[in-house]
Amino acid sequence: MSKKNYFVVSNPQGGWSVKAGGSQRASANTSTQKEAIDIGKRLASNSNSELTIQGTDGKFRKKNSYGNDPHPPKG
Protein backbone atom coordinates (compact mmCIF):
# COMPACT_ATOMS: atom_id res chain seq x y z
CA MET A 1 0.00 0.00 0.00
CA SER A 2 1.45 3.39 -0.95
CA LYS A 3 1.34 6.23 1.50
CA LYS A 4 -1.02 9.15 0.91
CA ASN A 5 0.38 12.64 0.92
CA TYR A 6 -1.88 15.38 2.29
CA PHE A 7 -2.50 18.91 1.05
CA VAL A 8 -3.95 21.97 2.80
CA VAL A 9 -5.75 23.96 0.12
CA SER A 10 -8.17 26.87 0.00
CA ASN A 11 -11.77 25.82 -0.44
CA PRO A 12 -13.74 27.56 -3.25
CA GLN A 13 -16.79 27.74 -0.97
CA GLY A 14 -14.72 29.48 1.71
CA GLY A 15 -12.36 28.24 4.38
CA TRP A 16 -9.70 25.56 3.99
CA SER A 17 -9.65 21.85 3.16
CA VAL A 18 -7.31 18.96 3.89
CA LYS A 19 -7.14 16.56 0.96
CA ALA A 20 -5.33 13.28 0.47
CA GLY A 21 -3.39 13.09 -2.79
CA GLY A 22 -5.54 11.71 -5.59
CA SER A 23 -8.80 12.19 -3.69
CA GLN A 24 -11.69 14.27 -4.98
CA ARG A 25 -13.27 14.73 -1.55
CA ALA A 26 -11.69 16.53 1.36
CA SER A 27 -10.63 14.64 4.47
CA ALA A 28 -11.61 17.72 6.48
CA ASN A 29 -13.01 21.22 5.93
CA THR A 30 -12.27 24.07 8.34
CA SER A 31 -12.89 27.79 8.59
CA THR A 32 -9.24 28.68 9.24
CA GLN A 33 -5.95 27.67 7.66
CA LYS A 34 -4.43 26.96 11.11
CA GLU A 35 -7.12 24.38 11.88
CA ALA A 36 -6.55 22.71 8.50
CA ILE A 37 -2.77 22.64 9.07
CA ASP A 38 -3.21 21.05 12.52
CA ILE A 39 -5.47 18.34 11.08
CA GLY A 40 -3.14 17.83 8.09
CA LYS A 41 -0.12 17.44 10.41
CA ARG A 42 -1.94 14.79 12.44
CA LEU A 43 -3.05 12.85 9.35
CA ALA A 44 0.40 13.03 7.71
CA SER A 45 2.14 12.05 10.94
CA ASN A 46 -0.16 9.06 11.46
CA SER A 47 0.54 7.79 7.94
CA ASN A 48 4.26 8.74 7.83
CA SER A 49 3.65 10.87 4.76
CA GLU A 50 4.10 14.44 3.57
CA LEU A 51 2.01 17.58 4.12
CA THR A 52 2.02 20.38 1.54
CA ILE A 53 0.48 23.73 2.50
CA GLN A 54 -1.03 26.20 0.04
CA GLY A 55 -0.67 29.90 0.84
CA THR A 56 -3.41 32.49 0.59
CA ASP A 57 -1.99 33.52 -2.80
CA GLY A 58 -2.69 30.04 -4.22
CA LYS A 59 0.98 29.00 -4.42
CA PHE A 60 2.27 26.10 -2.37
CA ARG A 61 4.43 27.62 0.34
CA LYS A 62 5.58 24.84 2.65
CA LYS A 63 6.19 21.10 2.64
CA ASN A 64 6.81 18.88 5.69
CA SER A 65 7.72 15.20 5.79
CA TYR A 66 6.64 13.02 8.68
CA GLY A 67 8.16 9.63 9.36
CA ASN A 68 11.07 8.12 7.50
CA ASP A 69 12.32 10.81 5.12
CA PRO A 70 14.64 9.27 2.48
CA HIS A 71 16.31 12.66 1.87
CA PRO A 72 16.71 14.45 5.23
CA PRO A 73 18.37 17.87 5.17
CA LYS A 74 22.08 18.07 5.96
CA GLY A 75 23.18 19.71 9.15
Question: What's this model, at a glance?
Answer:
The chain is α+β, with helices and mostly antiparallel strands and 75 residues long. Helices cover 19% and strands 32% of the residues.
The order of strands across the largest sheet is: 3-2-1-4-5
Shape: globular
Question: How many domain regions?
Answer: 1
- Span of the ends, CA to CA: 32 Å
Low-confidence stretches: none
Name the assembly state.
single chain
Total helical segments: 1
Quick one: biggest sheet?
Answer: 5 strands, mixed
Helix content: 10-25%
**Share of residues in strands:** 25-35%
Radius of gyration: 12 Å
* Alpha-beta classification: alpha+beta
In total, the number of strands is 5
Pattern of helices and strands:
EEEHEE
Mean pLDDT: 89
Organism: Roseivirga spongicola
Biased composition (Polar residues): 24-34, 44-55
Protein name: DUF2188 domain-containing protein
Pfam families: DUF2188
